[in-house]
Amino acid sequence: MKRRQFLTSAAVASVAAAGASNDYLRAAADTDTKGGEFYQLRRYQLARGPQLKLADDYFREALVPGLNRMGIAPVGVFNLSIGPDTPAVYVLIPGASAEMLSGLEKRLWQDAQYTKAGSDFLKAPAKEPAFHVVEVSLMQAFESMPKLKLPSATAQNKPRLFELRTYKSPTDEFHRRKVEMFNSAEIALQAKLNMGAVFYGDTICGSPMPNLTYMLCFDNLADREKKFLAFNDTAEWKALSTDPKYPVEIVATVSNILLSPTGYSQI
To answer: pLDDT tens digit string along 212-224?
Structure first.
């Protein structure tokens, strides 16, 4: 597999240069008017062997401290526990604007502490790359939850399990309706049942699109199963899921993976 990197900034720039009026650029053009955060989500595809330690050292000693020096926190670093194509590491980076997040790489390379601490990873030879591929998406926080919320278990350094869920819709209109469904009732219902929401993001740039992505936090698998069963059994969800305004086809596919935080993850 060739080593490739999909950079959010380049993707946004290419779409803008083409003169597109696509809805997915709405947040990039209106970064702070609603006071909501933006999120960059990275997925690093690794291979078993030396890559694992090389990447772990880079995230712990270079990337997270480098982002913190920019005033970016908390930064989440997670190992893929259950999902396709392990091993993989997910990095969640919050920011005040799309512009801030799209310019991360340039600013990091200007940080001497970052380049020194991450030298082995950043300058790994092509024959022994530090990773196979990194996929990057950019999201804007939902209106009903404009800021990332740290799980209480994080502050207490307790065991925790994260679920990352991505809903892809078949059309832009159906995508808007699913986002509305979350903003109007689904987010509040998940909060009522203490499902540990960390963030809800409307994807501006990434693949596949259109989609929304959100993250929940549980104590363990048993806690997850218990809370999802309770969620599906509520009168509120039964009414919402049968509302003609939100037909089942508004979501084409659902992807959900389980993640474990690294020891130095700030989420």
So the answer is: 999 999 999 999 9
pLDDT digit string, tens, across residues 142-185: 999 999 999 999 988 899 999 999 999 999 999 999 999 999 99
**Cα(160)–Cα(263) distance, integer angstroms:** 11
Q: Is 242 helix (H, G, I), strand (E, B) or coil?
A: coil
Element (H, E) at 60: none
> For the chain, how long is the longest CA-to-CA vector?
57
Checking DSSP bridges between strand 38-45 and strand 4-5, what pairing results, if any? unpaired
**Domains along the sequence of the chain with CATH:** 4-261 (3.30.70.100)
Residues paired with 255 in a beta bridge: 166
CA-CA distance, 173 to 176, in Å (whole number)?
A: 5
Query: How far is the C-alpha of 104 from the C-alpha of 96, rounded, in Å?
Result: 12
